[in-house]
Structure prediction request, 95 residues.
Amino acid sequence: MHIYIVTYDICDPKRLRKVFKCLSAWGDHLQYSVFRCHLNAADLVRVRSSLTDIIHHTEDQVLFLNIGPADGRGVLAVESLGKPYQQPERHAIIF
Prediction:
């Protein structure tokens, strides 16, 4: 399991909402267009596939930044200026 910072720039409001909803199922919303996701290799393929179906490939952009293994690194990999960083609470969602 690795931690990914996923950030996006989506041109259409409808697609933007769909991307936000998709990423909300996979990670923690940190800022406007930024998510932190704990993903294994299979999850990474799934989220990329889901986003591929949503975005317009000549207008939109989604970036995945792999910041390394999730074990013991989540909070240590984030530094902030100004308002201190607070790790989002993780809640289990059961469908």
Q: What stands out?
A: Residues 24 and 65 are 17 Å apart (CA to CA).
